[in-house]
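Q: Predict the bound structure with glycine.
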Amino acid sequence: MTFSRRDFVKTSLLGAVAAGVGTQAQGEESEQGAAPERDAQSGPHKRPIIVCANNGYAHLENAFAFLKGGGDTLDAALKVVKGPEDDPDDDSVGLGGLPNEEGVVELDACCMHGPTRRAGSVGGVRNIKNVSLVSKAVMEHTGHVMLVGEGAERFAVALGFPRENLLTEHSRKIWLLWKEFHSTKDWWGPGLADPHWQPPATGPASKDKPQSELWRQRIEDLQARAADLGIEPEHRLAAVHKVLFPQTGTIHCSALNDKDEISGCTTTSGLAFKLPGRCGDSPIIGAGCYTDQDVGSAGATGSGEENIKVAGAHTIVENMRHGMSPQEAGLDALKRIVRNYNGDMNKLRFMDMTYYILRKDGAYAGVSLWEGYSKGNPHKIAVHDGNLRAEVAVSLMKGYSQEYPPFPDIPEDLKKGSVYLK
Ligand code: GLY
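A: Predicted complex:
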């Protein structure tokens, strides 16, 4: 669904969030049908249990068996997030993550171990793919909590982590395409001397060539450039989409065992094409992840800058400490993001956030600011409590987030949904 002006009015802060109108109700349909009463205040809730972002789904079975067999809760959560970190095809985390604006992959991660009430974190780490494990090493092998940049990399190497080039060919080509997309403003991309050089397709629109048509042309040109760079045909549209609308991909995981021990961790390559040195929420204890052995654990994926400002994971755990259910606690944190923009939907529609929440008694929830990226692409959480499943997150607001940065004249069918997300 495209978010129309009428929908904005319907979901304005006063009209919807404060009054609860336009918010999703508990018990939305999940992948397998109606969602269970997962957020009820009273139990019994199943334990052990692992809750994570849906890109951890494929790694939950193994981690759950480890947890059930008596494995440590943090080690179980790390087993889940290590999967996408090792996967060169997941371009949001670890090896193959999309790089910063200089073409260098920089990773962030943190973890908290509930039973021993310890934490570790690393930010802006280059050349080491399993930064979640490095964050655990900071926790276990230093008197510090957070290491960043070159110091974090040298520490990891000292601990035996291998140095490797994290920029896969696939991510390098997408980054080059991004450079060429901006080449009207710098010296990257083919210059005037190139026999195929043409002025950019966008420019003054005319009756014969409206902006939407110019954009269609420009996107076709980008696909041709993607072909020149050697991006496979089936990946070209997705690559163009990533270039136009850089994403923040991430994975969070929280794990609880049958002794009521709980831990969490979060890892990411952060915002694609970010400024070198930019750290998002993922390495910030209390934003991207927070675990309190007395209460529960929470983590986030989405707009890191917004989550840092509401200390999202800590806010959620504190809310649960004061009696809110996991779902209420998460929706309250999302409302704080809405409040930071005074409910201005013209801005809020360009950001998104999903929280993964696990209370110490096994109650859990997944909540998101918007329903997802587009119809058919809802935000999901993955859960394993003996039964592995994906569930649709409960959203604060009806409708779908919009791509950022806004290019008002791109035709809707070229923006997202079926065209790009295949
Ligand atoms: N949430 C990931 C980031 O913003 O870096």
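A: The chain has a mean pLDDT of 87.
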